Amino acid sequence: MRLALGISYNGQAYDGWQSQPSGRTVQDHLQAALSRFAAQPVSALCAGRTDAGVHALMQVVHFDTELRRESFSWVRGTNTFLPPDIAVQWAQPVPDAFHSRASAVARRYAYVVLESPVRPSVEAGRVGWVFRPLDADALRAGAQHLLGEHDFTSFRASACQAKSPVKTIARIEIARRGGYWRIEFEANAFLHHMIRNIMGCLLLVGQGLQPPEWMREVLAARDRDAAAPTFMPDGLYFLGPVYGPEWQLPSRTAAYDWLP
Length: 260
Prior knowledge:
By secondary structure, the chain is α+β, with helices and mostly antiparallel strands. The chain is built from 5 helices and 10 strands, in the order βαββαβββαβββααβ. It has helices spanning 26-38, 71-80, 136-144, 194-206, 214-221; strands at residues 2-9, 45-46, 55-64, 86-94, 104-115, 128-130, 148-151, 166-177, 180-187, 236-243. Strands 1, 2, 3, 4, 5, 6, 7, 8, 9 and 10 form a 10-stranded mixed beta sheet that branches. β2 and β3 (55-64) form a beta hairpin. The longest helix is centred in the N-terminal third of the chain and has 13 residues, at 26-38. The model has no long low-confidence stretch (mean pLDDT 94).
């Protein structure tokens, strides 16, 4: 039987999603909890790997098991063995053809950034930070140059293993609530560090340190050295993958609609 799970986690304490010898990853903790609940080894595959310090509101994983339990039992039972900053939100049986990564038609991320002359304290690790004022019109004008299908080599980490740098960004939405900015991205797929590198550039534009047209120049250069430094992982949230209606999976975790 194949199961899909929706997972949320605060990434501050972990070395990213993917399993490592240190054992300090979200995947390591999740697989250990699932294995304890199922009383048999469980290996889970995710929809999108996240970096150290990056959070997830609806990471989706799938795994195969011979153990048959009600969906709520998988949620409560697995959460019993997870640390408090990782939680299973839902569990659902899926057809064997479902694959958490390959079946996704798009992925969504959001950056939450605090604009303040003073660094965050209570929100440390949960928001990014800029001390200069941001201009919404400049941010939106710069973001427009990234929409559609492009070669995103300029925003690609040197360690990226993707076969092609060509991706399609369908949507970038920018909103503000008080001192908090939320910049949401949706694309068919993302390169390693792509969003963090884009954010580094967008924030220069938003602060008036570069004109919006500079985004087009960076994109056309197809050279990582043309772009700004990688922005901090603080405040980056994986909102989750997007699947076709045939899989009948939740599209988002409503409990986190409060996120600025």
